[in-house]
Amino acid sequence: MSHSNSTNKHLESGGFVCVRRWMCVGWGAGVGAMSGGSVAIPDDQAFASFKAECLCEEGWNVTYNKSGTTVWIQSLDEERSLHKIKCRMVCNDVSAETMYDVLHDTEYRRKWDSSVIETFDIGRLTVNTDVGYYSWKCPKPLRNRDVVTLRSWLPIGKDYIIMNYSVKHSKYPPKKDMVRAISVQTGYMIQHQGPNHCVLTYLAQVDPRGSLPKWVVNKSSLFLAPKAMKKINKACLKYSEWKQRHNKAYKPWLFPEQTTLPIIPLCELSVQRADSLENIDESCLAETGERERDSD
């Protein structure tokens, strides 16, 4: 059975997109290369491959392990600070269903994610694939980043996978005041562990574009990644109460008939390649003493 058919059955029976810090987007060989570099909707094999990498620890270096949260780094190109980052958080007070809702709910993200500048959905390709825009604040003195991605999600039993990769859309070109980042494969895996217990894994092959100073990579793995996971957990705890007051029945990621997004023909999209974008050299920038975004 194709992933779209199996997803439809999950969605119709009641059976989701980008952590949006600068560290959330990636590059490398990923989903977008499945069909010779043309835009393709992820299939079962792509989801299975993503799950396997989320579960694999071989070849990864642990940089943080505390209070149920573990962060791994896998270096790809030290000179350009190219790397993969993987975060895993054990949540003993959040269900997989709530985690899934929180990661999908764009309106709620604007409330809890202080790094977001702008986020919106552009259109849909299928009931479980859409295209969206996201821009976010980077640690100073780096320039802020943005990204346009194709996002696809798949319920697997009581677990969930959400993946995205960068695409180009003619109506959303790079902005002069932003650095257009690249996501070749970024996503979440949510594992059901009980009625109020789940494990969240976040995986990104990261290219925020340009040459970054090493303190950025170190800060992402030692501080920003664990902090971002903690913020997601806190957001989950407050979601039910918030949702009751904000269009509580509206969940198009569960009920696709609710969506009002226009359909985008696949031919309007192309894979966003890193070599077609401006290369930004920020490798000599020093970390500022600013800490307001680092506090809870």
From TrEMBL:
Domain START: 57-241
Primary site of residence: other
A Gene Ontology term for the protein's cellular component: motile cilium
UniProt-listed InterPro entries: STARD10_START, START-like_dom_sf, START_lipid-bd_dom, START_lipid_transfer
Secretion signal span: none
A matching Pfam family: START
Biological process (GO), any one: lipid transport
Name under which the protein is recorded: START domain-containing protein 10
